[in-house]
Amino acid sequence: MLSRIKSHGLNGIGGFAVQVETDIANGLPGFEIVGLPDAAVKESRERVRAAIKNAGYIFPAARITVNLAPADMRKEGAVYDLPVALSILAASGQLGANPNPAFVTFGELGLDGGVRAIAGTLPMVIDAFSKGETIFAVPEGNAEEAAYVEGVKILPVSTLAQLCEYVRGDATITPHPTEQWLGYEQRFATDFSEIKGQQGAKRAAEIAIAGGHNILLIGTPGAGKTMLARAIPSILPQLTYEESLEITKIHSITGATKGRGMIRERPFRAPHHGASSAALVGGGNRAMPGEISLSHYGVLFLDELPEFQHNVLEALRQPLEDGFITVSRAAATATYPAEFVLVAAMNPCPCGNHGSKIHPCRCAKSQIERYRGRISGPLLDRIDIQIEMPEVGFLELSEKSAGEPSAVIRARVEAAREAQRKRFAEDGILLNAQMSSKLIKRYCSPDPASEQLLARAYAELKLSARAYQRILKVARTIADVEGAEQIALAHYAEAIQYRSLDQSGREA
Amino acid sequence: MAREITPEIAARLWLNYGTEYNSRLFLRIVKKYGSLLEAKDALTAHADAFAALPDRVRARLTEANQTGFVERLIERMEKKSIRFTFPGDDRYPKLLAEIPDPPSVLYYIGKIEPDPELSIAMVGSRHPTKYGIEVAKRFGYDLASAGALVVSGLAEGIDACAARGALDAKHAVCPTLAVLGCGVDVIYPKANERLYDEIIERGAVVSEFLPGTQVERFHFPIRNRVMSGLAHGTLVIEAAERSGTSITAGYAHDQGRDVFAVPGRIGDEMSAGPNGMIARGEAKAVFSPEEILSEYSCLHVAAETRPPANVLLLSSLPEDQRAICRLLKSGEMSFDDLCDALTLPIGTMNACLTELQFSGILQVLPGRRYAIDTDKVKLKDI
């Protein structure tokens, strides 16, 4: 007898339907899986054999051939354990008269016949749903995340035996109720009101998020760079359902969502500076998403920016521009979204104390220059806001006033983003940071007084033409945050303050 | 103005090439044999006398004994406009000849004033505060304007500021001399390249190290004795408790020269050096350049006064900017401190600071701190 069980495979965050076909023929007992399986799929033979036996069924002593169709797509991981087992049981007539059930299924099997949660459930369900499938038998641990997709019937499966009884019609499985989108939550991010002092840097962060600008924090150790960075997700606009779904899809591929349901907070990713470029932008022989995709719609925080390897930082340039990354490997090619706010932090000099009153800096000027030079111009060009954070003494800290809570700042950010959406309605962009030089010309034309100030800054700070344009963009955002239609002199003047790296290092 | 190379000068260059910066060894050898020429004869003719010398010196002397070696050395120096002088030569600084171990050959680029009326060495930290920078520039300028020679070491920080201040005295004939810890044709640190060029133009860079010698850590203490030796007095501005500066001050003492120090704010790490010297009686506290000048009865009326800073009436500024300037009058403040002291919106604060900065009133210091640019403006609170 021949059986067909529906399953699904993933390629990036997209997917493809997989048919698991089993033929049982007379001959020397054997068990072969074909259809471009990888090592994990081949190993499933042993799990399937044991699981079937321990679930109380008989593993047929015949020549078994399992085919994973289409045969030209690579199949990965342990997700096919469950459909393969089901397919064998169906083909050997142990599941009754209907060997081709209507549901799509995937899951890893334990030797005892239990079903384990897998990575990538949500993107698979979404993709299969878009291809017309509506019923899914998924591991119990993945049921919650899958149930967020509206219009599907999710059958949570905890054991192989349970699913077999369901197929035979001997038992029913209560579908997992459709999960309600509970809305945005702020669980992990630091609140802005917890940060004392550093008002200048907080303001810079607000402007950065309002206009989608990347930001570089420069400060002595202990100035609060990391704390500020951790707070930034809390002032990003609230997540929408669609954004939440997209974030969860990406995180699901890495298996991070097992048993957790949807991700309802903006991601905050802080890879260590030892990270390889594959870890950052994505890679591995399965073309897995990297940190930049895992921080999609959230914040990518690179602490100690100059300590990152040069090639790793350079790899960031293209996704910073495009908002997505195509990871190409010999075995697989996948495209992942990567729209994130880059928050970078660095010390002002190798010893970290440049500009400190408490601990004098011991670095030679040339050392400082070399340290700062490690960040290439092109990368720096994509960071609109550079802000120096003054050190905060321990005693002063307790006297500093707390600031506004994140929710208040977020409201301003959302209003500023709304103003930008309206302005750029016909330009195909959403945020000031994305303005091309043509649009900058259209939307940021300084009045004569501002032009004079800008010209002086341009000459004295020896700004590049690009830096000049970035000042204009940031000034536009400042005006938006202030709710001003026109950019005023004060807005340009403030924007000039956010060029810290151009400002310092001009003494004697 | 090529110098005639007498056999004696050739012998001196030969022996200097061998002994390098070890001027004590040089002197011992010359003393032992009576004169340079006899020393050369003895060392080249008698193997035992030669064998007593250290290996490196022997190797270098043999190398320099090749025919034409000294001539080639001189030719190479001439190409780079490097000149040299030695004790007994009329271009050799008189003060330097008085110390117990004067450089046996002093190489230089530029022009040397062998007998300045007053010569002051200015030494201090490579990482000065804003206060140190201002003081060094002011003393350098005022001393040079009054006709004194400012001796510095061309390091970053106080050295560079002192030289810069001296060069700013436009009418001074020979305002400054820089003593290097490497060959005179080696620019270190690279950041001071422009300063180096200007010093050569108006004064000189000098060194006892052979041209082409690269920087070594141990060169600096050796160099420091030349700095103090070239000056009537050594002035200390901002230094940590134990530093190269205290070595130079120690040499000045040993050479019987004066040591001055400008007091710093207590509590600052960079004040510990000068304040400590004053407290221990090792240095005389000075509060103005005139005090140094009067010490040597060198009461020239300064040839010119420093270009007066623009007087700025606070009342001429908009209200917010005026409030910021009032606060900064009593010293530098960080952005955070300003925010705490004033209740301006952060955006307004940023805008005010930018405008003040580009009107030339404020300067930005590392660590996002702001200060009145006292070089350019003088604030009047009316």
Q: How many domains of chain B?
A: 3
Oligomer: heterodimer
For the largest sheet of chain A, list the strands in their spatial order.
11-14-17-10-18
CATH topology-level fold name of the largest domain in chain B: Rossmann fold
> How many individual domains of chain A?
2
Class by SSE composition of chain B: alpha/beta
Please tally the helical runs of chain A, counting DSSP H or I stretches of 4 or more residues.
21
CATH class of the largest domain in chain A equals: Alpha Beta
What is the gyration radius of chain A calculated from CA atoms? Answer: 28 Å
Regions of chain A with pLDDT < 50 over 5+ consecutive residues? none
Q: Could you tell me the strand content of chain B as a percent range? A: 5-15%
CATH C-level of the largest domain in chain B: Alpha Beta
Descriptive notes:
Chain A is an alpha/beta fold and 508 residues long. In chain A, 38% of the residues lie in helices and 17% in strands. Chain A has helices spanning 39-54, 81-91, 121-130, 143-146, 160-168, 199-211, 225-231, 241-253, 277-281, 291-294, 310-314, 317-322, 365-373, 377-381, 394-399, 406-423, 437-443, 448-460, 465-481, 489-497, 500-503; strands at residues 2-11, 14-25, 30-34, 63-69, 104-105, 108-109, 115-116, 135-139, 153-157, 215-219, 268-269, 282-283, 288-289, 299-302, 324-328, 333-337, 341-346, 385-389. In chain A, strand 12 (282-283) and strand 13 (288-289) form a beta hairpin. The longest helix of chain A is centred in the C-terminal third of the chain and has 18 residues, at 406-423. Chain B has 382 residues and is α/β, with parallel strands linked by helices. Chain B has helices spanning 7-19, 23-33, 36-45, 47-51, 55-64, 69-79, 94-97, 130-145, 158-168, 193-202, 219-229, 244-254, 272-279, 289-295, 319-329, 335-341, 346-358, and strands spanning 83-85, 106-110, 119-124, 149-152, 176-179, 204-207, 233-237, 258-262, 284-285, 310-313, 333-334, 362-365, 369-372, 377-380. Chain B has 3 domains: 1-78, no CATH class; 119-295, Rossmann fold (3-Layer(aba) Sandwich); 310-380, Orthogonal Bundle (Arc Repressor Mutant, subunit A). The N and C termini of chain B lie far apart (60 Å). The A-B interface holds A 197-200, 202-203, 220, 348, 354-357, 360-362, 364-366, 387-392, 400-401, 453, 456-457, 460, 478, 481-482, 489-491, 493-494, 496-497, 500, 503-505, 507-508 and B 126-127, 133, 137, 156, 160-161, 164, 189-191, 240, 269-270, 334-337, 339-340, 346-355, 358, 364-369.
